[in-house]
Design goal:
The structure is a homodimer. Chain A is of the alpha+beta class. Chain A contains 14 helices and 26 strands. Chain A has three domains: about 210 residues, Bira Bifunctional Protein, Domain 2 (BirA Bifunctional Protein, domain 2); about 100 residues, Anticodon-binding domain (Rossmann fold, 3-Layer(aba) Sandwich), CATH 3.40.50.800; about 70 residues, C-terminal domain of ProRS (Translation Initiation Factor IF3, 2-Layer Sandwich). Chain A is globular.
């Protein structure tokens, strides 16, 4: 067990915080609720960004950038949106500071008060649709497929590194379409992109579905989502894609001349994933030795530690390592040779385990004689000695194996913690223990809220591919035609 | 001349705005002073980011992310910094809105007033050095070489798209070092990176030097800069790199245990370039037909326009074009086949000229017969007919030629507008006409400010490689030992 990491069985929440801090991913800042993302954590985010950005562009989207500040009045234009977002937010009221004549301190200059307050964006639908009004005149201007990488601020009262912070980084897509069908298709396309990213890159299995009315995005007609199961049995919403109908087009009066020469309101979607995904990554794979990263998102995929007693030994090892590094880089593997002479091998082993580097190579003088290298996998902690001769090929293969293995492990965990339940007593018990619970629900917000009150569980999603099945609501006993997924959630 | 673009000879400032708007780079938003960067403009920024990010990583830097908000008190910690930055800034005073009971309108909730106001970062030295305090204990933790890509806000009264906006995008490097010499070396290294980027990627020649006291960054000991000459004879500061001495380390009490086991204050640098570079790019190369982009930063390097009258002709052309596109892409050239059937070739030609695409190919039925294609260069507007057979190789070569040519053109312009002046009358005349004026200066702020009052010119920089030369100050007649560069500036 790594030094300073609380065992997850003892206190999962503390284990999570320990991992974030000890693996040097992020830390709290002097500003309440705002985190500092440290280089190692940011490197993971950069990998995520780069892959997602490629997927968005591959599906025809372009990036743009819209203002950080949103005039207060914009929020009031879409009725349910203001309910959801204008409440807990950072408000800019002044644009100047000055030196107080008496105290000599820096104070807000009351003369520099804004006529209309500005909100630091919690999400950008309003400011973006205000711009789209001028960009869209005819069906020829559609579809408009735009994404933005940005910081947003939501004044959360209880914050946790990556999972819920006042400021966070994300991407937000905002698209405009001619028809309802096309907009729904877009929202579903992006859901697929998110699910692919979660499963193939993060090795994190996800369920796909739509949200209940209670959990829907403020301003959406339908919210599609992917949900993953964390190791403590709680669900985590990993990405959402919203079909917004014509709500924002009507709020900002965005009409277009259709192919039939009619003025019509534009159909919209919006969708986003955030730095929260790093929290999901941690809670999907990591263990009591620290972080476990899927190779495809690991900033360093292979670390090489030399074992030596003399300068001559280090020189001989370094020469051998140089060749290995070159070969690995040529195969697109990111590799670090940790030749710090201020640290012992044992220290380095723990450090790279803590940081979740998927593969560690160790080479000592005896290995040089035998032409071997010790290869350690982070996911299983297994070691074996391999011939150096074709090492790079084997490593590439091993990285793929690790990527698959941690996906399989997470899938097995999820399957083992997925329950089909028909009795209220069993429901309460399963929710308490943790996991995804498939149960019948009468579809009313009233029942959902009562279940939440009694168990803390919410409807995580209504499965997209859910089979029709006659049944009775787990709570009210009223008729139900399909099962939905309940869980406690982050 | 392109439709809707004011000739630059008539009104340079209007010409600039027309280019930004008509080439679809950016536009003003509903928020005073904040711009929307449109997809085509953002694509240029993405290219810039990608190249610069690679250069920073190549020189050992890592990315991280620090909070958007800075507690007001942080600014007061470094005396000259607060003078420079705390004045015109966006101040967050509240964290909640509510519905007014009487009017039903959304208003600021006065009960949700922050104990200490938060400033939206105008630059991040203070919040970053507050974090560094915990990151640095020993010389082993140094150097710390960190960069951040972020948005910043400075409440500018007069804004212009890209050149001066309330919110802008930039990168800011913040490094910490053991010794003064090492920090100075870092500041100079980055100056070199910026100059390389400007000249080799933007095709924009720059002067390198240091700022006078008046023009120095608030909190810096020395500000290094690159300065470029715009087509209207005004200078533009394109990037700065600051040697901060121990100012921020002292303000935030960041000490480290040195190799000699002594507690010492850390030495610092900071450096940045911003979306302003897009403004510089426009004003370095563009003409009355629109944008002219250096091929290395052009989102689309080659556009192909089919000339046809019938569906059959288009089909035959498309087949040929497909091969060309494939070949070009294989060579790393970004290419667009503009097969829109809603627009005529002439319209497309103007549009891509306006957007600065470096090379345009046009192919019609006769070309198919002859195995030729018409190749038009954006920089010289020259056209020639070339054989399709080895077209991709020729295009790659042509793109390099264009990159060089626009650099040479900008260099010639700068040389033609660089003057060595020893008389006050000539000085005033040359400054009025525009250009870089090398003149003697007595080195005092007093003289610099008087010159600024009378001519609007400032010392743009003191050349790094400036030769010693005895002379008399152009204004005061006091002794001077080298020439400095004066100009009016953006």
């Amino acid at each position: 067990m790594a030094k300073g990491i609380t065992p997850k069985e003892e206190n999962y929440s503390q284990w999570y915080n320990d991992i974030v801090l000890k693996a040097d991913l992020a830390e709290n800042s002097a500003v309440r609720g705002s985190m500092v993302i440290k280089p190692y954590g940011y490197a993971i985010w950069e990998k995520m960004q780069s892959v997602l950005d490629g997927m968005f562009k591959e599906t025809g989207h372009e990036n743009a950038y819209f203002p950080l500040f949103i005039p207060k009045s914009f929020f009031s234009k879409e009725a349910s949106h203001v309910e959801g977002f204008a409440k807990e937010c950072a408000v800019v009221t002044h644009y100047r500071l000055k030196k107080d004549e008496k105290t000599g301190k820096i104070v807000v200059d009351e003369e520099a008060k804004l006529e209309e307050e500005l909100i630091v964006r919690p999400t950008s639908e309003t400011i973006i649709w205000d711009a789209y009004k001028n960009w869209i005149q005819s069906y020829r201007d559609l579809p408009l497929l735009i994404n933005q990488w940005a910081n947003v601020v939501r004044w959360e009262m209880r914050t946790r590194l990556f999972l819920r912070t006042a400021e966070f980084l994300w991407q937000e897509g905002h698209t405009a379409h001619e028809t309802k069908a096309e907009a729904i298709k877009e929202a579903e396309l992006i859901l697929g992109v998110y699910a692919d990213f979660a499963e193939k890159w993060m090795s994190m299995p996800v369920l796909q579905g739509v949200k209940s009315t209670n959990e829907r995005f403020a301003g959406a007609i339908e919210t599609y989502c992917i949900e993953a199961l964390m190791q403590d049995g709680k669900a985590l919403q990993a990405g959402t894609s919203h079909f917004l109908g014509q709500n924002f087009a009507k709020a900002f009066d965005v009409q277009f001349l259709s192919r039939e020469n009619q003025l019509e309101y534009v159909w919209a979607t919006s969708w986003g994933v955030s730095t929260r995904l790093i929290g999901a990554l941690i809670m999907s794979h990591s263990d009591n030795n620290g972080l476990v990263l899927p190779p495809k998102l690991a900033p360093i995929q292979v670390v090489i530690v030399p074992i030596y007693r003399s300068e001559e030994q280090l020189a001989a090892i370094s020469e051998k390592v140089e060749g290995i590094v070159k070969e690995l880089k040529a195969k697109g593997v990111s590799v670090k040779f940790d030749n710090r002479d201020t640290r012992k091998p044992g220290f380095k082993f723990s450090e790279w385990e803590l940081k979740g580097v998927p593969v560690r190579l160790a080479i000592g003088p005896r290995d040089l004689e035998n032409g071997t290298v010790e290869v350690a996998r982070r996911d299983t902690m297994e070691k074996e000695n391999l011939q150096i001769a074709d090492i790079s090929e084997k490593i590439v293969h091993l990285l793929e194996k690790i990527q698959d293995n941690i996906y399989r492990k997470a899938s097995t965990f999820r399957d083992d913690n997925t329950f089909y339940v028909d009795s209220w007593e069993v429901f309460k018990q399963k929710i308490k223990e943790g996991g995804f619970v498939y149960a019948h629900w009468d579809g009313t917000s009233e029942t959902e809220l009562k279940i939440k009150d009694e168990t803390k569980a919410t409807v995580r999603l209504i499965p997209i591919d859910g089979k029709k099945e006659e049944g009775k609501c787990i709570y009210s006993g009223n008729p139900s035609y399909r099962r939905v997924v309940f869980a406690k959630a982050y």
